[in-house]
Amino acid sequence: MKKKGAVSDFTKQRNEELKSAFKAQLYLLGTIPTEELFTRAAKMPASRFWVSERRAAEVISKMLKGDMMFGMNRKKREMYIEILIRVREEMRREPGITVTEATFRAVNSPAPEFYLTPKSARVIIYRIRG
Fold first, then answer.
1. Burial of residue 59 (number of CB atoms within 10 Å: 0-12, 13-18, 19+)
2. What would the pLDDT profile of 79-95 be if each residue is shown by its tens digit?
3. What are the residue ranges of helices labelled H in 1-130?
4. Sign of CA dihedral 37, 43, 47, 48
5. Which has more confidence, 97 or 70?
6. Sign of the torsion angle spanned by Cα atoms 22, 82, 62, 94
7. Other CB atoms closer than 10 Å to residue 16's CB: what's the count?
8. How far apart are CA 66 and CA 27, in angstroms?
9. Which of 89, 8, 19 is nearest to 49 (CA)?
10. What is the C-alpha end-to-end distance of the chain, expressed in Å?
11. How far apart (Å, rounded) are the C-alpha atoms in residues 19 and 41?
């Protein structure tokens, strides 16, 4: 399991993308409550799933064996379920592909959202704002 406070290689890229999503919502929406801006920014599409390929492959392997990771927080679980759907689709489309390769492709494909809670989005945006 990821350690609290661990920094991934892509953290800076994710943070900049989230900041851009927040600013886009800010300019579009004008005067709405700040918390709504964080919610909308977190729900904007992302260029990829913000998890390492290695960690995703570990979780997806467990999920394919029947462990549905019920102890995981809701947003992370939603993200892994979406990755699992994409991995299964890759494996259906290309029989013989490894779980690792299918997961790599899924993680690096566009994500429908950042899979962050509004609170997490707020913490990241306030930390990097500028």
1. buried
2. 999 999 999 999 999 99
3. 11-29, 34-42, 53-64, 74-93, 99-107, 118-128
4. positive
5. 97
6. negative
7. 11
8. 44
9. 8
10. 32
11. 8
pTM comes to: 0.83
Query: Which residue matches tokens 């979406």?
Result: 82
Angstrom distance (rounded) from CA 115 to CA 43:
7
Sequence-distant (6+) residues with CB within 8 A of 86 are 102, 105, 106, 109
Output the CA angle 110-73-82, nearest 5 degrees: 30
Contact 115, 75 (CB under 8 A): yes
In angstroms, rounded to a whole number, what is the distance separating the alpha carbons of residues 103 and 58?
Answer: 9
